[in-house]
Amino acid sequence: MDKREYWLDIAKSIGIFLVVLGHTSINENLKIFIYSFHMPLFFLISGFLFKTNDNFKNFFIKQFKRYYTLLYFQYYNLHFLGNDSWEVWKWTHF
After folding, report:
1. What span, in angstroms and rounded, lies between the C-alpha atoms of 35 and 26?
2. Are 29 and 22 contacting, i.e. CB atoms less than 8 angstroms apart?
3. Mind listing the pLDDT tens digit for each residue in 19-73?
4. Which CA distances in Å does 68 have to 28, 75, 86, 93?
5. How far apart are CA 15 and CA 9, in angstroms?
6. What 8-state DSSP symbol labels residue 52?
7. Are 15 and 41 in contact (CB under 8 A)?
8. Do residues 14 and 44 make contact, with C-beta atoms less than 8 angstroms apart?
9. d(CA 29, CA 26)
10. Residue among 51, 43, 53 nearest 15 (CA)
11. What span, in angstroms and rounded, lies between the C-alpha atoms of 32 and 57?
12. Residue 5's pLDDT is what?
């Protein structure tokens, strides 16, 4: 069994606290400071926790097929259903 890295748990806890704090009514300067790094913190942590058994080429091909298929079907739906579906999609996905 792998050893648990407690510093990652602490970093995630700090990040979660900062997200909650950033979404409250706080000083605007503090909010700008928190927003400058709290999401990159989560990306950094997820990079430490990422593990795959595939080599890079197989991993890339698998991810490309997965996301390309989703994007293709989304485009197909938007293109053939008309502008009404585009207006709904545009306002629900920022």
Report:
1. 12
2. no
3. 898 888 888 888 888 888 888 888 888 877 777 788 888 888 888 888 888 877 7
4. 39, 10, 19, 18
5. 10
6. -
7. yes
8. no
9. 9
10. 43
11. 38
12. 82
Place of tokens 């990422």: 50
Is the model more confident about 92 or about 27? 27
Query: Is 26 in contact with 38 (CB distance < 8 Å)?
Result: no
The C-alpha torsion from 37 through 40 and 45 to 48, rounded to 10°, is -130
Is 35 in contact with 22 (CB distance < 8 Å)? yes
Q: Indicate whether 88 pLDDT > 60.
A: no
Instruction: Say if residues 78 and 86 touch (Cβ distance below 8 Å).
Output: yes
The answer to whether 34 and 18 have CB atoms below 8 angstroms apart is yes
